[in-house]
Amino acid sequence: MRKYFTLLESLLSGMADNRERIAIVWKDRRYTYEWLLQRIALWHDDLASRGVQPGAIVALEGDFSPNAVALLLGAVVFSNFLILTLYVQDVLGYTALRTGITFLATAGTVVVVAGLAQALTTRLGPRPVMAAGLALLTGAMLWYAQIPVHGAYASDLLPGYLMVGFGLALSFIPVSIAALAGVGPREAGLASGLINTSQQIGGAIGVAIAVTVATSHAKSLLRSGHAPADALTHGYALAFWVVAGLAAAGVVLALALVRNVRVPEGEPLRVGA
Questions:
Q1: CA spacing 20 to 30 A to 233: which of 52, 55, 120, 134?
Q2: Is the per-residue pLDDT at 212 higher than 90?
Q3: Whole-prediction pTM
Q4: Where in the chain are the domains?
């Protein structure tokens, strides 16, 4: 694991030092990539000015496998909310306000189940709890993969909303606990930032994959004569199949790689901010 972080740091440093020459290569996309490379350079310089070198990640004690799970978790969650929002608004014709209200079922479930997730993590350890949460997310994505053109909230959306709510609470909390297990107090902020960064990167990758799959399939169906609503629905459904695969991969990764550290009774659980 250390050699991968060393390679990443060298890559970022090299990109920051040569950002203008790299940007020229991209021609039409020059300004976009030049901006990105400038942000990398500023990030690198800002860490150095505060005495926090990117190489500190290499020396961080603890298990990095929860970060890999967090990356897949972020990919599933971000892409799920985006694709589902597009389906509800573009196909079912919901307004933005009505769409937001429908997601209250997921938000309310997370609030209710969060306490249970913490208790289960304390009793069983993070690995089986996060695997169960990711399994529920997988089931929710498979449920959404069956969405019809004329879907109804109670029968076609609500069961998935509830499964996502349970899955989010049972996955995010143990993933954060596992990522911070064995990390000293001085490195807790760095470890917390790393888990959050993994989720954000995973979300960006997941959204890119899901949107590409959905739009490509929908365009193909439109060219073959399908109605717009039918083409969009099938495109979103295929995207949900892909996202379900990412969630299932997270289950496998959690069971195979994450250490099942135990949290003593009565000890406060540190969850990344």
A1: 134
A2: yes
A3: 0.75
A4: 2-57, 65-257
